[in-house]
């Protein structure tokens, strides 16, 4: 990637600082900050403690059940969640009543709430209901894009999938549109913008309206934007890329541990695999309790050379490389010799030892991560991969269902087992009412009937069959389950060549000719095939032969106009847009992006000599999607 472009991508940090500073300048005097715990790491990624102190903050508290001491102006920072907002209002009411000296007529307001990313009308109504109107001042703040790695950006809005795809609440789409509008200001509006999905269409329409309402800058209208093309795609257009088990190091990291703003939590409490198991299967290991300074790892190449080298490698290869790195580091440490003179010893202690100590600390974190991945996933990993391949190819539905029920009763994991049944529903379909009822009954018996509502959420997200409709198709479902045939998913995946042929197969290391290596040779993410088609197409005929059959695909951009047009018609009427030169592509996925997709796009970037940057509202995994439905 060009150094100038990389610096621009880092520039969103400065934009976030300036936006926050503009809010804080309106809050006079000394103040204390009360911040929601899930925002701390995100805030720290662009505004550290020193910067906050310089803006007048004295103390910083985590939002908890106990209201903070009221000695100064209090500033609350929370996500745009009505329940959390009501919780803060209750604390403010308590503090207001407690301090009899409180003067509601003061010009300087004592309470401020910064809401991220949107300020909804219901918040103002709630203030009036609670009797806090005129006492509390509301502020809207959005940090836009957080740079996670060289080619990865995130809005860090984990509630998007739940709100948009499960609850069908589109209010957060305006925040995404606003951030993409900022992106266009910084990098210029791409000439070739592809939209795939209902929510993507709405976001791009909002961006177009924002740009038409405000005078576009010369930067946005420039002939040479930083990114020549853009893809905006809905997550529900490719659920398998979330539900399948990745084999890359970074993919397995996020599959097992929680991550926030590019910081991986390595503590037992954040272990997704342990948290999803029933208690009798959760056996704690003594050696895991000895971790003192092994709590987090920054998933960024700038601070961790081991991660940079291995993040997109096959995990089996990474384990051996890290073992070799450990031996190599031990050799560096043993270079000290009693035969050294005083000057040599001094140089070794001052220069070599601190470097070795820092590398050893990072290496130990990676060893802990690898150990936990092996402990949690190795026992059933190969068989799981085979079953996922069977699901994708619809080879043996009976074998798949037997495996799922076996896992449900012998190696039960609350979310992993849901990923499998959802993958089966999407790829194979035709589940009979008996099959659905048997699974739901077994799941509720294992994990408790409190999870019944979760299946409704999965159904709304189209990850699980509608039980009411399945029951009326019982006989059809049974007939389909006995006759393997190509499903709608396989026809769709076949046209896009998302399921590689047997000649590619699976290998122990990354076959650098095919991005399917991220799923052990089983599957190529949809966004990768779209990106590859756009970047390599020499003319309209070639591009349409690969993706022209996608009905919901639409096109806009400075070459096309402000309106979204059907992809096929727009390409044929604007033949000059191909081939795409320079090969620079920005991809935004609404509902979360996976590290498997990032790794596969990185390979396409290398093979095509292009620049690809991915972004989303969060870095996600199959388990995260399952949690969002609950």
TrEMBL record:
Coiled-coil segments: none
Pfam annotation, one family: Sec1
GO biological process, alphabetically ordered: vesicle-mediated transport
Highest taxon, organism lineage: Eukaryota
Annotated InterPro entries: Sec-1-like_dom1 (IPR043154), Sec1-like (IPR001619), Sec1-like_dom2 (IPR027482), Sec1-like_sf (IPR036045), VPS33_dom3b (IPR043155)
PANTHER family the UniProt entry points to: VESICLE PROTEIN SORTING-ASSOCIATED
Family assignment from sequence similarity: Belongs to the STXBP/unc-18/SEC1 family.
Name by which UniProt lists this protein: CLUMA_CG005700, isoform A
Gene source species: Clunio marinus
